[in-house]
Description:
Layout: H1 2-6, E1 15-18, H2 19-25, E2 36-39, H3 47-60, E3 69-78, E4 84-93, E5 99-103, E6 108-109, H4 115-122, E7 130-140, E8 151-153, E9 162-167, E10 170-174, E11 178-179, H5 190-203, E12 217-227, E13 237-238, E14 241-245, E15 251-255, H6 261-276, H7 301-309, H8 313-323, H9 327-332, H10 344-347, H11 358-367, H12 373-379, H13 383-386, H14 388-406, H15 410-424, H16 438-443, H17 472-485, E16 492-494, H18 498-504, H19 515-520, E17 531-533, H20 534-549
Parallel strand pairs: 6-15
Antiparallel strand pairs: 1-2, 3-4, 4-5, 7-10, 7-11, 7-12, 8-9, 9-10, 12-13, 14-15, 16-17
Helix pairs in contact: 7-8, 11-14, 14-15
Amino acid sequence: MYDLLAGKQGITGSYALGRSKTLENFPMLRAENLVGSLVYFDGQHNDARMNAALAVTAAAHGAVVANHVEVTSLIKEKDESGVEKVRGAMLRDNETGEEWAVRAKGVINATGPFSDAILKMDEPGMPDIVAPSSGVHLVLPSYFSPKNMGMLDPATTDGRVVFFLPWEGGVVAGTTDTMCSVEADPRPSEKEIEWILSEIRRFLSPDVKIRRGDVLSAWSGIRPLVRDPKAANTKDLVRNHMIHESEAGLITIAGGKWTTYREMSKETVDRAVESFGLKPLRECQTETVRLIGSHAWSDTMFIKLVQNFGVDPDVAKHLSHNYGDRAWAVCALSDRTNGSAQHASLEQRIHPRYPFVEAEVRYAVQYEYAMSVVDVIARRLRLAFLDAQAAREALPRVIDIMAKELKWDDARKQREGRKGLEYLTTMGLPDSILDESPAAANAREGFVNMQTTRSLDFVDPASYYRRGQFSAEEIGAILAAFSEFDAHGDGHIEARDIQPLFESIKVPVPDNGFEPFLDAAGIRHSDPGNAVEFEQVFDVLGEIKEATNAKGRKPTSDLNLNQIPTHRSGGSV
Length: 573
């Protein structure tokens, strides 16, 4: 049925796998009760890059594009028959505070979850048409999933679909579906994060332990589900998208998905042509208009980038995949002023674990309207969505590059740094990063900078959103303590030795004791003579560290899942 509906646009045919082949292709799956799997193919994209490509393509076709500009009110004028019509808007530049009027034959409201705010400027008493739904997504390290295969499970505990897919070098997992309020930067709740993790653990092998600290980034997106104000029952949600025209002529397009954005645009512009009396020179061209970056791109273009610029292959693939033929322009912006290397900024990554390079920051400012550090780390490069801690570590360098491009003074650089940290607290990092001194932040690279004594540090508030990590020296201390209780030198201790071992390295006793952690690690502690391996002890210590730090991020309210019917929320992704 899936292949039939896809028709000629299908990627390739679906097929079934038996139990053994399923485990061969996806070895992380739980083998218990597994019968087999159905494999189908779907597409995915980097929506930040897609959105930027749409903006620059519109500009190339004559549109005026403005970033960080807000509508403060609508301009109304009476037409020939004395009826008030929307004829423009008052705008404010949120960077400078400047305000001005823009007049037009008509206004289209295409503001997603913020549609009601514009609608009420036209009709203050109009009921809301948007039913905002929060969808939380998590990004995990790439090793939790095969490179080219993910998993989708419709049999969750609450009826929602959960997915677990390779994405942009990591693994994205989700999602929830919860009624929410509309805000610019929504935060995922800990209850939602834990629910997704618990659902993932249900279908992964017991050997694959996913902890809260494995989450590299966690974000909440708002789905603008809509109600038709002209429908008989305004409580029902529209399945796809909806076009609404007010008495004053304000056209609103709301709802829909990325997969139908061109059809939505065509229908909206066709409506505007009719309602505003426009006289287009030709029919709609959207079926043949290609986005900037697609014209000269090929699967092998990255090879030419390697050959011509000497860039690392993973960087070349990243640039080709995310910029298309504009990757040549990115490479041309390499900074040669900081050394003798011909393409220094192509060799200088903004973070060592990711293929993002300094030239991309310059390109974002010069060609893609980036005005703030959040524009770059979240809305152009996507690093904040892939790894919030890595984005935090990259902030100083990104700000320095942007300051040179945009002539920022030190005060502006400090403000950008603060705004960047505030944004990252909505992506899974703790609020405590706002109070940490710059020196301390710079000293902490990667995971956690822990005490390296025999007395382990189990409390690290600045990194309690990360996995319970120990430094190499600390691991050595744990091994040494384990060896002291390994009487036979065979890599095992007895269950009765766990308590004194923990006391020797000053492990804090959790509120509910050690027993739940021992059970989770598969340690049969009821038998004092039961053999226990080092890996089991190490897992318990990691879990205790996370539980100790997690006290700072307990949810303040319960999560009510699936308040919106699945078939009304567009399924899953």
